[in-house]
Write a structure and sequence with these properties.
2 domains, 41% helix, two-stranded antiparallel sheet, alpha+beta, 5 strands
Length: 172
């Protein structure tokens, strides 16, 4: 526990208003030739109910430092591009966004894949709507390729495999 002299206590009480804990720590350390940390000053302020009365709330129409406007993009760890579609923070996969915008809605049992497996190729011809079950079968059976024509063929083969399994045919 840190001991404060009466002079130090008075200094903190008289100088806390309008200063951040960081600023108060710097002033205090310079004045008294001490090496207290910001957290130690914060703890003293808290235990003695000292407040700076600095208003840290966002005012109306102010935006945080990390605000991104609608249309901003970022790439996640898996290499997919996300686009901001609405405020405050509504993001969507860019390929899904573009598909819906130009080709129509995406049913719940479907997903959009890249025909050439390039997650940055947003050409509308490269975006294919497939049933999730067909995509999983194609992925598990290594039927997704980096060429559009081969991937389309792989999806057709996956559809046939899934239809056969639904019918109960076990002769693959």
């Amino acid at each position: 526990m840190i001991k404060f002299s009466n002079e130090e206590k008075t200094f903190l009480q008289q100088n806390v208003k309008g200063r951040t804990s960081e600023e108060l720590t710097i002033c205090f350390n310079q004045r008294f030739n001490r090496q207290l940390t910001i957290n130690q000053i914060k703890q003293y302020k808290k235990s003695h109910k000292l407040r700076s009365d600095i208003n840290t709330k966002f005012k109306q129409n102010n935006k945080p430092h990390n605000y991104k406007p609608i249309g901003s993009e970022f790439i996640n760890n898996n290499g997919y591009v996300f686009i901001k579609v609405a405020d405050p923070n509504e993001w969507e996969l860019k390929h899904r966004y573009l598909y819906k915008k130009y080709k129509g809605s995406i049913p719940n049992n479907c997903c959009v894949i890249f025909a050439d497996s390039n997650k940055r190729n947003f050409n509308l011809d490269n975006l294919i709507l497939v049933e999730i079950s067909d995509k999983l079968t194609a992925k598990n059976r290594h039927l997704l390729f980096n060429k559009k024509e081969l991937t389309e063929t792989g999806i057709l083969i996956a559809k046939i495999i899934n239809k056969r399994s639904k019918r109960g045919d076990k002769n693959e």
